[in-house]
């Protein structure tokens, strides 16, 4: 890890408690959970206990929890599963322009089967209007998918209000909640969602493990065949250590949420205020208040995000210019573009996301390195104009 790690939205280090919980299932209790002998039964008991734990954290029933390989699979399974189970009713989907590509590409892929997707716009803060959701509903709409909190700019969507709209129209409602655990409530009843996706490595659990919640009675069909695992909903030998680790990490994230927020929010607010007050040509992206408590995201005028990251990396500061899943792309982020920013701002995005070990010294390091780096980069910009002021 870099000396200063501010990319917790991309991934998080596995907690020691999680590693400890997983350890026996790599060696001593390594049986196949589908086997009937003792080692297999012990592994099965561990998965059952993990499922009960996750269900409790979601305020759901154990039968509604499906373990997957991560958020991308959960998003795919949720959207395809509802779409194919509902083809007899219609082929219209509703989502937003700022979803993770696991949602956007899945909706695009369904187009080859005759599905049509409405991509709702967002305002300048990255917020979708519940009224726009209501207006987009058609008689043939079979699914609404709106992410809980945006992975790039941190804006938190009004899920409960959208959930009431979906419920009134009897349309299944899915949310990509990958960024939420440890920062937001994941009570599926309060949120009003029928399907919800999680990924363990976003909340200090192991990579390669995720959850798909499917409310009982929801029209949905499995997308991975090959075995009777997960109650015939996902074929394949279960990742027992990963599932145990996920459940342990999620329980810690839920129980420690107030303490986590109390730790990261003041750091985030300090970073935002110092950046906007001292760095000319900077703008906060995302909603100023309805945002993840650990997310500070910006755009900088007349500078490339990749160049900013390289400058920070040279100073041993780990950050991101947006989604880790689009790293290396030459075009501006689809999320930043959807905010409607002027062309000389959209390429200069920077996301700084804090975590359990973040400190005031980390903020000091960023503010010591970034302003002079931006000045150097702007001086090298071939089309630069006069240096922006703090209010530009």
Written description of the protein model:
The structure is a single chain. With 392 residues, this protein is of the alpha/beta class. The chain contains 13 helices and twelve strands. Strand 5 (141-145), helix 6 and strand 6 form a beta-alpha-beta unit. Helix 2 packs parallel to helix 9. It starts with a strand and ends in a 12-residue tail after the last helix.
Short note summarizing the structure:
The chain is 39% helix and 13% strand. The chain has helices at 16-22, 38-58, 71-85, 101-110, 130-136, 159-168, 188-191, 229-232, 240-255, 257-278, 305-314, 334-338, 360-380, and strands spanning 4-5, 65-68, 92-96, 116-120, 141-145, 173-176, 195-199, 210-214, 282-284, 295-300, 317-318, 349-353. The strands form three sheets. The protein has a seven-stranded mixed beta sheet, sandwiched between helices. Strands 9-10-12 form a three-stranded antiparallel beta sheet. Strands 1-11 form a two-stranded parallel sheet.
Pairing-aware structural class of the strands and helices?
Answer: alpha/beta
Strands ordered across the widest β-sheet = 2-8-7-6-5-3-4
Q: Write down the overall mean pLDDT.
A: 94
CATH class of the largest domain, please?
Answer: Alpha Beta
Measured as a percent range, the helix fraction is 25-40%
Distance between the termini: 34 Å
Instruction: Give the total of domains.
Output: 2
Q: What is the makeup of the main sheet?
A: 7 strands, mixed
Q: What is the second-level CATH architecture of the largest domain?
A: 3-Layer(aba) Sandwich
CA radius of gyration: 22 Å
Low-confidence stretches: 385-392
Oligomeric state, counting identical vs distinct chains = single chain
Report the count of strand segments.
Answer: 12
What's the CATH H-level homologous superfamily of the largest domain? Answer: Type I PLP-dependent aspartate aminotransferase-like (Major domain)
Number of helices: 13
User: Looking at the structure, what is the overall shape?
Assistant: globular
């Amino acid at each position: 890890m870099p000396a200063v790690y501010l990319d917790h939205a991309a991934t998080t280090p596995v907690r020691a408690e999680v590693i400890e919980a997983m350890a026996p299932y790599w060696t001593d209790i390594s049986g196949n959970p589908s086997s009937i002998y003792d080692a297999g039964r012990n592994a099965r008991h561990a998965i059952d206990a993990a499922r009960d734990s996750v269900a409790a954290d979601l305020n759901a029933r154990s039968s509604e929890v499906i373990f997957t390989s991560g958020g991308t699979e959960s998003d795919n399974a949720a959207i395809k599963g509802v779409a194919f189970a509902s083809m007899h009713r219609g082929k219209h989907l509703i989502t937003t322009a700022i979803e993770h590509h696991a949602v956007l590409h899945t909706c695009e892929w369904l187009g080859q089967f005759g599905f049509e997707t409405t991509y709702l716009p967002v305002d300048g803060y990255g917020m979708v209007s519940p009224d726009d959701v209501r207006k987009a509903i058609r008689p043939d709409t079979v699914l609404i998918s709106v992410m809980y909190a945006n992975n790039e700019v941190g804006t938190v969507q009004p899920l409960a209000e959208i959930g009431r709209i979906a419920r009134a129209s009897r349309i299944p409602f899915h949310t990509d909640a990958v960024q939420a655990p440890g920062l937001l409530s994941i009570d599926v009843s309060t949120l009003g969602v029928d399907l919800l996706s999680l990924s363990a490595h976003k909340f200090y659990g192991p990579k390669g493990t995720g959850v798909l919640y499917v409310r009982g009675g929801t029209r949905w069909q499995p997308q991975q065949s090959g075995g009777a695992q997960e109650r015939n909903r996902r074929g394949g030998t279960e990742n027992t250590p990963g599932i145990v680790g996920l459940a342990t990490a999620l329980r810690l994230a839920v129980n420690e949420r107030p303490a986590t927020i109390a730790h990261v929010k003041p750091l985030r607010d300090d970073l935002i205020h110092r950046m906007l007050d001292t760095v000319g040509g900077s703008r906060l992206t995302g909603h100023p208040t309805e945002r993840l408590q650990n997310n500070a995201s910006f755009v900088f005028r007349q500078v490339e995000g990749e160049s900013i990251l390289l400058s920070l990396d040279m100073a041993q500061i780990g950050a991101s210019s947006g989604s880790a899943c689009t790293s290396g792309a030459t075009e501006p982020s689809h999320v930043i573009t959807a905010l409607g920013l002027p062309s000389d701002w959209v390429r200069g995005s920077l996301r700084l996301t804090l975590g359990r070990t973040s400190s005031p010294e980390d903020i000091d390091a960023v503010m010591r390195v970034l302003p002079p780096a931006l000045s150097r980069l702007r001086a090298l910009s071939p089309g630069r104009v006069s240096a922006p002021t703090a209010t530009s």
